[in-house]
């Protein structure tokens, strides 16, 4: 499996995705720093203009990193898998003396593992940037995390796991209609579902919802793989 994943990274030029992830992290870090310390989230009178529950710095960090990397992961899955079907390179891969299910699973894991690591590291960089900034500047948002706490890292890893796994739903949609655009559009819909507010109601603070969503995501991942042996290429 690891050899197949490495082959996928090499075939799809993983270096360009590494560069994109680094640039994305830098932009998110700059934006979050500006939110916290440069007053771009403040009203003219100097008070914070934020929705209920969004007055702590971890809320915008989790929101914007989650949005960015869910879309980024869906784009990679579309490029690695859906586009491979459309441009017929998957035909060649299915001639390898390896089960189709294993090939498809390796493609999915190549994208998932890369983005899980990228999202986790991105969050760490942003949180560290906020910690360093708070030593010299006043934050508009309350600093509600402790990087010296084990629970901080457990939550960071679990949230990254959930966000990246959600992209399997987008992949299933893209494969179902044979469209990379469908996968990307689905990722936007997932963002609205998980992060949007309807009045004071939001799924973002629901403790059970991430567990259910993760189970559903892996269910779609299994559905994407299970029948590939008996299906013709798209």
The largest sheet is: 2 strands, antiparallel
* Largest sheet: spatial strand order: 1-2
Q: What count of structural domains?
A: 1
Task: Give me the Rg, rounded.
Answer: 19 Å
Give the DSSP E fraction (strand runs of 2 or more residues): under 5%
Structural class: mainly alpha
- Average pLDDT taken over every residue: 82
Order of helices and strands: HHHHHHHHEEH
Q: How many helical stretches?
A: 9
Looking at the structure, what is the overall shape?
elongated
User: Which stretches are low in confidence, meaning pLDDT under 50 for 5 or more residues running?
Assistant: none
Total beta strand runs: 2
Give the CA-CA distance, first to last residue: 24 Å
Q: What percent of residues adopt helix (DSSP H or I)? A: 55-70%
Task: Describe this protein's structure.
This protein has 234 residues and is mostly helical. It has one domain (2-230). Helices cover 70% and strands 2% of the residues. The protein has helices spanning 2-11, 14-37, 58-86, 89-93, 100-134, 150-165, 167-176, 180-195, 209-226, and strands spanning 197-198, 201-202. Strands 1-2 form a two-stranded antiparallel sheet. The protein starts with a helix and ends in an 8-residue tail after the last helix. 32% of the residues are buried.
Short description:
The protein is mostly helical. The chain has one domain.
List the helices and strands and how they pair.
Blueprint: H1 2-11, H2 14-37, H3 58-86, H4 89-93, H5 100-134, H6 150-165, H7 167-176, H8 180-195, E1 197-198, E2 201-202, H9 209-226
Antiparallel strand pairs: 1-2
